[in-house]
Amino acid sequence: MQVTVREMRPEEWADAQTVCIGAFDGDGIDTLLTTLRSSWGWDDRLAFVALTDAEVVGLVVYTPCFVDALDRVVSVLVLSPLGVRRDLHGQGIGSALVRGSLAELERTRAEPAVFLEGSPRYYPEFGFRPASTMGFTAPSTRIPDAACMVYPLPTYEPSVRGALVYADAFWRADAVGLRE
After folding, report:
1. Which helix (H) or strand (E) holds 170?
2. Distance between CA 49 and CA 5 in Å, rounded?
3. Strand pairing partners for 66?
4. In the chain, what are the domain boundaries?
5. Interstrand relation of 113-117 and 148-152 (parallel, antiparallel or unpaired)
6. Alpha-carbon distance 174 to 159, whole Å?
7. Which fold has domain 4-172?
8. Which of 32, 40, 87, 171 has the highest count of CB atoms within 10 angstroms of its CB?
9. CA atoms within 13 A of residue 18's CA, in its CB half-sphere
10. Which residues of the chain have pLDDT under 50?
């Protein structure tokens, strides 16, 4: 299967949103996507789609957030959510979406790092590592240490460390931390 990854076009939003919501079991992704898209931090250049046969089959969104570093506030990105059409799970589309979007961020963005909260079994294959090993703390105690991960971008410097601070949209959508 041929997968193309690129920035989402504004006219693809409805399809991308539908695909991403359908990838989850009612975990509030619809609320998160709506809240993110209406927030101050939304940037169309930070939403990427996966296409097969010119059809949107996956979406990943990056949101500007902050690290409360020792000497300053540093702009960073947070990867969330990532969704692939449910009937296409396990075919490498999510992996292609993560790899392709990270490659684009490496070429075009000034932020030093991308953070996420996610599976410590899945994301290390892309270069994510536990944030705590690089001096970062999670934005919530509901996020297990192993699930708060960071991917250094080309402008990363080891002196940048501190607390990750999520954008308000994650809090307003109650999309922070793992639930029982």
Report:
1. helix 168-172
2. 6
3. 75, 165
4. 4-172
5. antiparallel
6. 31
7. Aminopeptidase (3.40.630)
8. 32
9. 8
10. 180
**Alpha helices in 3-118, H assignment, sequence order:** 13-22, 29-37, 93-108
* Beta carbons of 91 and 85 less than 8 angstroms apart: no
- Rounded CA separation 172/150 (Å): 23
Chain centroid to CA 39: 15
Task: Residue 86: name the closest of 3, 15, 23 by CA.
Answer: 23
- Contact in structure between 130 and 148 (CB atoms under 8 Å): yes
Tokens 């997968």 belong to which residue?
Answer: 3
Q: Retrieve residue 164's tokens.
A: 């990750």
Q: Do you know the residue count of the chain?
A: 180
Torsion (CA) 10, 12, 17, 18 in degrees, nearest 10: 160
